[in-house]
Design brief:
alpha/beta; Alpha-D-Glucose-1,6-Bisphosphate, Chain A, domain 3; 15 helices; globular
């Protein structure tokens, strides 16, 4: 069995199964403790399995010189920010982000609040492999104990996170008069986001903020934006925001019911930074999934778009390398130069609200010229992630598609880093062409991989 644990966003699997069975989680805890070697801030989301994983990590870390500080239920970006801000040797977040409740994950942060390097992850994987001495320990499956789950957090860490966020904005109730609908995905933002926005004066309507351990991301939040869209129809609001389960990304719905994903948010923020002379260099970092329209619209304003692999860690790395002030992806991970860490759905919400308030303009007005190029995305579930370069028929078909899209669109074919999925995206100025090419390519892929 493969010992590879880390994907593009930490360790993730079905809770109770390797690498998140009891033996492996305790070994991961020990390996993390040995690697970080000091005080470690640990948070969790609202899945039934999160407290169980926390106890196992604590058990493993206790075998080392590492000392756990329990941050309770808290968003992922809070762990990254507090780890850096308060001088911890590292941080850990127990979450599977946007995945269903049956899954869970472990994200590890270095002392500067960034995700661990590939080298550090490799060392942890090597140590876990040494600690798990038998195949039986890997094949073991645990039943996740039932627990009473809520988003309540009396540790004080949520308040410290909020204080850091609001220090970057005007003092007082600067959101007074703004009406916002929140979809908290029954996740880690369920208490913190409503509390902070009320504190700043916003009039809010809150949905899906009552986690029970099994309803995180269930027909709600950023992965099911139809729920927020429907709620907005019956509420007179300036905008709506939907978070994912661990709060590191956010998607928006305008007052007129228009979907605003990460691309028009980047466009809006880039324009504001450019006007204030802060977009230096004149570069925005996106990903392979960034819509072609953003590239064209930024180019028209003499702003370059640099594309990297999907995942906020790759955006962060390129921002650090190039000095870019802004980066993000359509899924709603947006990274600002204020912190230069991971995506933060609540911070992004505050930044967008600030634009609305300071410009005296609605979200519809701020994004009025945004027109997304037709994009078709399909997810194909796979049993194995067979290297695409070993499939001649697929390579030949991809070459044909790329030739037809030259100058008017793009093709992206990649395996998900967190799920057993092959993602295929076709984007061009012609939706009918996208449909035809997608059908042809998927047929070729299915025949090749079974």
């Amino acid at each position: 069995m493969s010992t590879e644990l880390f994907g593009t966003d930490g360790i993730r699997s079905r809770a109770g199964e390797f690498p998140l069975n009891s033996h492996a989680v305790a070994a991961i805890g020990q390996a993390i403790g040995e690697r970080l070697n000091g005080k470690i801030l640990v948070g969790q989301d609202t899945r039934m399995s999160s407290p169980w994983i926390f106890e196992l990590l604590k058990q493993g870390i206790s075998r080392t010189s590492g000392i756990i500080q329990d941050a309770g239920v808290i968003p992922t970006p809070a762990i990254a920010l507090l780890t850096k801000w308060l001088g911890y040797s590292g941080g850990v977040m127990i979450s599977a982000s946007h995945n269903p409740y049956e899954d869970n994950g472990i994200k590890v942060f270095a002392s500067d609040g960034t995700k661990l390097s590939d080298a550090d992850e490799g060392e942890i994987e090597k140590r876990v492999s040494e600690l798990l001495s038998s195949d039986k320990e890997r094949e073991h499956t645990d039943r996740i104990p039932d627990r009473q789950i809520s988003a309540a957090n009396s540790t004080g860490w949520g308040e410290r996170y909020q204080e850091i966020l609001i220090s970057h904005f005007p003092q007082g109730a600067w959101l007074a008069g703004l009406r916002i609908v929140l979809d908290c995905a029954n996740g880690a933002m369920s208490e913190i986001a409503p509390g902070l926005l009320r504190r700043l004066g916003a009039e809010i309507t809150v949905t899906h903020a009552f986690p029970n351990g099994t309803n995180i991301n269930a027909a709600c939040g950023a992965v099911h934006l139809e729920s927020l869209t429907e709620t907005m129809k019956s509420h007179s609001a300036d905008f709506g925001v939907a978070f994912d389960g661990d709060g590191d990304r956010s998607l928006f719905v305008s007052g007129n019911g228009r979907l605003i994903d990460g691309d028009p948010v980047l466009l809006t923020m880039a324009r504001r930074l450019r006007r204030s002379g802060q977009l230096n260099p004149a570069v925005v970092v996106g990903t392979l999934m960034t819509n072609f329209s953003l590239e064209r619209m930024l180019s028209a304003e003499e702003i370059a778009l640099t594309r990297v692999s999907v995942g906020d860690r790759f955006i962060f790395e390129e921002m650090s390398r190039s000095g870019a002030q802004l980066g993000g992806e359509p899924s709603g991970h947006i990274i600002f130069s204020d912190f230069r860490l991971s995506g933060d759905g609540l911070f992004t919400t505050l930044k967008l609200a600030e634009a609305i308030v300071s410009d005296h303009a609605s979200l519809d007005v701020l994004t009025r010229d945004w027109a997304e190029a037709p994009q078709l995305l399909k997810n194909l579930r796979v049993k194995q992630k067979v290297p695409l370069e070993t499939l001649p028929a697929v390579q030949e078909k991809m070459t044909e598609v790329n030739q037809e899209l030259q100058g008017c669109g793009r093709l992206v074919v990649r395996y998900s880093g967190t799920e057993p999925l092959l993602r295929v995206m076709i984007e061009s100025d012609d939706a009918a062409r996208n449909d035809r090419l997608m059908a042809e390519l998927l047929d070729t892929i299915r025949k090749a991989i079974g």
